[in-house]
Inverse folding.
């Protein structure tokens, strides 16, 4: 992510309750935050409020506890993760997103934020809720580029907005007989992603969100693949120079998906090359060979990882080539 010019991640968080896989997700989110702090990357939480009706249906909370439950979880965020030096602030307040429209109602979100006293900069999905400073965009493949263009138009009247860029959407839900199809957005040889990211970086938005890092099921991944290689990451490298005062982030969605967020902040430049994107794979391959050989002396490889994360790529490449 860092070599491509991505500055942070947005993690879809399901809260603190030990229900379904929520506790596992919370533990893994903690690990992601720890790595962001170690690598000097940024971090944002997107609260998955569809957990509220799910907990209510399972009789884990009462209908009268919907708002208080969410407020308690946001207060926990305020007490712990919001205090991290890696956590993103906008207008001097921690940034908080919420995903979807099937959890808390608009009025309940207003009550929740008032009760939590967290003093956050809040973004809702697609449409600006009453308590939000704006909204963040997300793929609507059934409408293709129309929804994307509509968001950019609506966002002009908001104090803030977080546009999205995604490479493609390959619907599998109808094929898997899970539900109706969400539609499809063709990759168009990378032109779809290039156009969305270019418009996002040229906008006045403080953050541009990439959907997603690794949602392989929906085909929106920008992580390197056999099919597309490093093409989408190279696109980010090229276009990042356009928006030097903008942020690009990835995002963790749908339980196992990381969404990158490009948060440029103006202090870093897209100085890495496409060849640099291959260094993490070289490092991974050497780690695998060391493991297969039963070699537990991995300090050298750990040092190379630190060189890569700190931007000393010349030294990292030299040591990788010595292996």
């Amino acid at each position: 992510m860092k070599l491509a010019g991505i500055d942070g991640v947005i993690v879809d968080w399901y809260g603190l309750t030990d229900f379904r896989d929520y506790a596992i997700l919370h533990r893994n989110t903690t690990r992601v935050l720890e790595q962001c702090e170690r690598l000097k990357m940024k971090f944002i939480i997107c609260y998955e409020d569809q957990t509220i009706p799910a907990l209510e249906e399972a009789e884990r909370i009462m209908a009268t506890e919907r708002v208080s439950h969410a407020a308690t979880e946001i207060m926990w965020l305020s007490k712990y993760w919001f205090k991290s030096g890696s956590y993103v602030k906008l207008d001097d307040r921690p940034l908080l997103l919420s995903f979807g429209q099937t959890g808390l109602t608009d009025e309940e979100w207003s009550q929740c934020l008032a009760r939590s006293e967290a003093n956050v900069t809040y973004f809702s999905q697609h449409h600006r809720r009453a308590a939000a400073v704006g909204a963040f965009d997300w793929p609507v493949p059934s409408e293709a580029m129309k929804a994307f263009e509509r968001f950019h138009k609506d966002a002009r009247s908001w104090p803030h907005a977080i546009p999205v860029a995604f490479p493609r959407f390959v619907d599998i839900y109808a094929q898997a007989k899970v539900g109706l199809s969400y539609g499809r957005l063709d990759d168009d040889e990378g032109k779809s992603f290039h156009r969305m990211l270019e418009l996002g970086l040229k906008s006045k938005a403080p953050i541009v969100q990439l959907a997603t890092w690794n949602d392989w099921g929906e085909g929106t991944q920008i992580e390197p693949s056999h099919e597309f290689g490093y093409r989408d990451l190279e696109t980010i490298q090229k276009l990042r120079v356009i928006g030097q005062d903008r942020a690009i982030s990835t995002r963790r969605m749908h339980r196992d998906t990381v969404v990158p967020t490009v948060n440029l902040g103006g202090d870093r430049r897209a100085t890495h090359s496409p060849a640099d994107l291959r260094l993490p794979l070289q490092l991974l391959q050497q780690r695998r060979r060391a493991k297969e050989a039963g070699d537990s002396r991995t300090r050298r490889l750990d040092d190379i990882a630190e060189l890569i994360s700190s931007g000393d790529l010349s030294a990292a490449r030299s040591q990788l080539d010595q292996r």
In short: Residues 263-268 have pLDDT under 50 and may be disordered. The two ends are 24 Å apart (CA to CA). Residues 22-38 form the longest helix (17 residues). Residues 109 and 131 are 7 Å apart (CA to CA).
